[in-house]
Write a structure and sequence with these properties.
Mean pLDDT: 79
Number of domains: 1
Order of helices and strands: HHH
Strand content: under 5%
Helix content: over 70%
Number of strands: 0
Shape: elongated
Distance between the termini: 30 Å
Length: 83
Amino acid sequence: PDLFIGVAFDAGGVASGPMTATFILAFAQGASGAHPSANVLIDGFGVVALVAMTPLITIQAMGLIYKHRQRKEQQAAVSKDSE
């Protein structure tokens, strides 16, 4: 829906943030260092990609839920008016 356009544009710059890069990369390095078959570089960049995509997927899910609820309310209003 058009209601979420501003939020969607704002949610795009999460992966390059200083807090995200500092904490998520350190966490990924520690987690992949603890696993014997993990590659620190590949797994670290995968975590950053996941962090970058999560806000966008969340906004899309919110839009779907909003549309579903809006359609439900419209159907309830139509059925109430027809009675």
